[in-house]
Design goal:
One of its GO terms (biological process) is tRNA wobble adenosine to inosine editing. The protein is α/β, with parallel strands linked by helices and 157 residues long. The chain has one domain: Cytidine Deaminase, domain 2. It is 42% helix and 19% strand. It has a 5-stranded mixed sheet with strand order 2-1-3-4-5. Helix 4 links the parallel strand 3 and strand 4. The termini are far apart.
């Protein structure tokens, strides 16, 4: 049976694709009715676009695939807690549920700094499940940035 762990593994697979091209390894998958309707990974450095976050790219692809901007009935799986920009897009696209892996204490807006997705003042709130495969998701990011720092230090020598 496909469950949160199954779909989070698919998001991790997307994050690995980002890592292969030297992007910050963040991946996202959108599921409706037990089927993946969109999958994406971070392309901010590759595209040099501030909005090329995995979640936004997946939302855009899901809207195209489903032929609607309303992603009601969908669950978004993402390896890192969404930032304020992505949380806003999640609210605006009416995603019902968000499942994320690692928390982001410096930029996360699904519980770490603020929780935009459950803010009752907005016209839409999401169900949130956090910490699914958090260790694997966090480790991937930690290793990526550790390696980036190591290369920078080596180049400075």
């Amino acid at each position: 049976m496909k469950d949160d762990f199954y779909f989070m593994q698919l998001a991790i697979d997307q994050a690995k694709k980002a890592e292969e091209i030297k992007e910050v390894p963040i991946g996202a998958v959108i599921v409706k009715g037990g089927e993946v309707v969109a999958a994406a990974y971070n392309l901010r450095e590759t595209d040099q676009r501030a909005v090329a976050h995995a979640e936004l790219l997946a939302i855009d692809d899901a809207c195209k695939a489903l032929g609607t901007w309303r992603l009601s009935g969908c669950t978004l799986y993402v390896t890192l807690e969404p930032c304020p920009m992505c949380a806003g897009a999640i609210i605006q696209s009416r995603v019902d549920r968000v499942v994320f892996g690692a928390s982001d204490p410096k930029g996360g807006c699904v519980g770490s700094i603020y929780n935009l997705l459950t803010e009752p003042k907005f016209n839409h709130q999401c169900e949130v499940e956090k910490g699914i495969m958090a260790e694997e998701c966090g480790e991937m990011l930690t290793n990526f940035f550790r390696e980036l720092r190591r290369k920078r230090m080596k180049n400075e020598e």
